[in-house]
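Work Package 3 committed the consortium to producing structural models of liganded targets before the mid-term review. Because experimental data for this complex are still outstanding, the team generated a predictive model from sequence and the ligand definition alone, so that downstream docking and mutagenesis planning could proceed in parallel. The input record is reproduced below exactly as it was submitted to the modelling pipeline, together with the SMILES string for pyridoxal-5'-phosphate.
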Amino acid sequence: MTLRKLEIQENLQIVNSRIGLAAKTCGRDPSEITLIVVTKTFPTSDIEALYQLGIRNFGENRDQEGSVKAPELPDDCIWHFQGQIQSNKLKSIANWADVVHSIDDLSHASKLSSLVDQKDIFIQVSLDDQPNRGGVDPENLEEFVSGILAFKNLNLRGAMAVAPLGQEPGTAFARLKELSNQLQKFHPKADEISAGMSNDFESAIAHGATHIRIGSQILGVR
Ligand SMILES: *Cc1c(COP(=O)(O)O)cnc(C)c1O
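The resulting structure, written out as tokens with the ligand in place, is given here.
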């Protein structure tokens, strides 16, 4: 095993045991939490090492990277796009990404719907006071959800968010859980929550995250 693969294996073991502990602490079954390893900026060789270590869920933020890396890995990988969407990249994103976590604009949803047979999506909600890092304003969530449900080939799986900087993550993730409940009133199947990064995933798990997106804690600083 290469030194790099050993390092990744060790980091992965630490993260997995932290996930297990966080789940146990709040009485959840760790198997209901999907670890997405965020591989943005890291080379395909790292993704191959992760694959050999059993990881199948990978996250990328940029079409330019995901569209190159995804075809280099075996077909049983599940690719997650979680970056800001540029409309002119949607066709390419739809080609390699199995799940799009960052839907916050109905025009993107409309375009995506016209490009695919079927696609899994999350609605990104903003937990910021001044929305700037993307996400639907919670005040507009219900209207946004009914807009999304008009696109029958988009499979709405749940809500996604990034905890705002300089705020206690627990407060943000508790709010996200409320918004997820609000979403489920419209669409009971959309009960998944994509939340939690390297610095706050235990808190996200405590507030019901089903998908955590971890990069630097496993692969190192970017
Ligand atoms: C980069 C990124 C992550 C992973 O962040 P780390 O701090 O490296 O774990 C998760 N989610 C989104 C939306 C990201 O942009």
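Reviewers should note the following from the model. The longest strand covers residues 154-160. These observations will guide the Year 2 experiments.
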